[in-house]
Design brief:
This protein is of the alpha/beta class. It has 15 helices and twelve strands. It has one domain: TIM Barrel (Alpha-Beta Barrel). α8 runs parallel beside α10. It is globular and about 65 Å long.
């Protein structure tokens, strides 16, 4: 099997020749791999990483306004500043364009993104090139997350309680753009996309960020629209959800998600064996390898033991699992631990 065949078989819970692998990493972690192996491509090849490749439309819309040095803005008007952390840097949000909106009139004054701001013409050619060897991912639809980003996390959590009508309207407008933008991308690719993200970080380290009832009223209808859109084009639905998201899983699976990431098993309700037993006949799992303690601070033996445990639990039936770190490998992770992760997966994950 090549990487694409292996990944898609696992997603569809069909037999594989070995447990497939994927990688998410910060630029600093990628830098270590590139320096050691010579390039990102050589690192993936030598570590037998199956790797899911992504495509997206090119932005050709209005340029951002002049900004202070070190600050960038995207087409939503969300501004980010490069901020140093232990082991690397992250672009942290420093301006939320709808933070001070108080009425529908304020929403009308905002420059909402438009599909006219994007060039979709190149997507088919890129998808054809990638799918010769790798699975093709296109899209990221996350109404709760973009509500957080445009309003600020605190204000977005207050909105549904303070003014439900306003909250519904801002979430609808965010979702309408995401829906039409992704329909344009899917149509441009003519059935060549393997998976798309219908996603949101609904969980925290200790439990849900919002109640299931609030999710069902404000966000689930839009997730359902996005899932239906993916299925209309024969695209598998990849759902990324950090932290303790167990309370939402029955609803998400009922709506039609097919792959769950990142499986942060240290959080309440995310125990590996329980997830496999309860949902393994319905969805594929992606991720699992603990990267808050074991990957950055453990020994290579501990990393290898973690890989074996993830395969034994989430890949216990020989499929339905793509092994990867449970979120980005951080810059403070030793190179030898990254190598141990994929070397153990290559050797231990082979089917008899």
């Amino acid at each position: 099997m090549n990487s694409r065949e292996r990944i898609l078989a696992a997603f569809d819970r069909k037999p594989v020749d070995r447990i497939p692998t994927d990688i998410w990493a910060t630029p600093e972690a990628w830098g270590k791999l590139e320096q050691h192996f010579g390039s990102r491509e050589k690192a993936c090849a030598q570590l037998h990483i199956d790797f899911i490749d992504s495509i997206t439309a090119k932005y050709i819309g209005p340029p951002p306004p002049p900004l202070p040095e070190g600050v960038t803005a995207d087409y939503w008007g969300i501004q980010r500043k490069l901020t140093k952390h232990s082991g690397g840097t992250y672009e942290e949000e420093c301006f939320h364009p709808l933070a001070f909106a108080e009425s529908i009139d304020d929403l009308d004054k905002y420059a909402w993104p438009s599909t006219d701001w994007f060039d979709y013409s190149h997507l088919k050619e890129e998808a054809l090139r990638i799918r010769e060897t790798n699975a093709v991912k296109c899209g990221y639809m996350a109404p709760f997350f973009f509500h957080n980003l445009t309003r600020s996390l605190e204000q977005s959590l207050i909105d549904p309680m303070e003014d439900p009508e306003f909250a519904h309207e801002i979430i609808r407008r965010i979702s309408d753009f995401l829906y039409h933008h992704h329909r344009c991308m899917f149509e441009a690719c003519e059935g060549l996309i393997d998976l798309s993200e219908v996603t949101d970080d609904l969980g925290s380290q200790h439990g849900p960020l919002i109640s299931p009832d609030l999710y069902n009223e404000f966000y689930a209808p839009h997730h359902q629209r996005f899932i239906n859109l993916c299925h209309e084009f024969g695209i598998r639905v990849f759902h990324h959800d950090d932290g303790s998201c167990r309370a939402f899983l029955p609803k998400l699976i009922e709506m039609g998600i097919q792959v769950l990431n990142p499986i942060q098993w240290t959080c309440p309700g995310m125990e590996l064996l329980d997830l496999k037993a309860n949902f393994g006949d319905k969805i594929c799992f992606h991720g699992g390898v603990e990267n808050q303690r074991i990957l950055p601070f453990g020994t290579t033996d501990e990393v290898r033991a973690e890989v074996r445990n993830c395969i034994d639990c989430l890949g216990s039936d020989g499929t339905g699992y793509v092994l990867a770190p449970c979120h980005n490998i951080q810059g403070n992770t030793p190179l030898e631990n990254i190598i141990a992760l994929y070397d153990e997966a290559w050797n231990y994950g082979k089917m008899a």
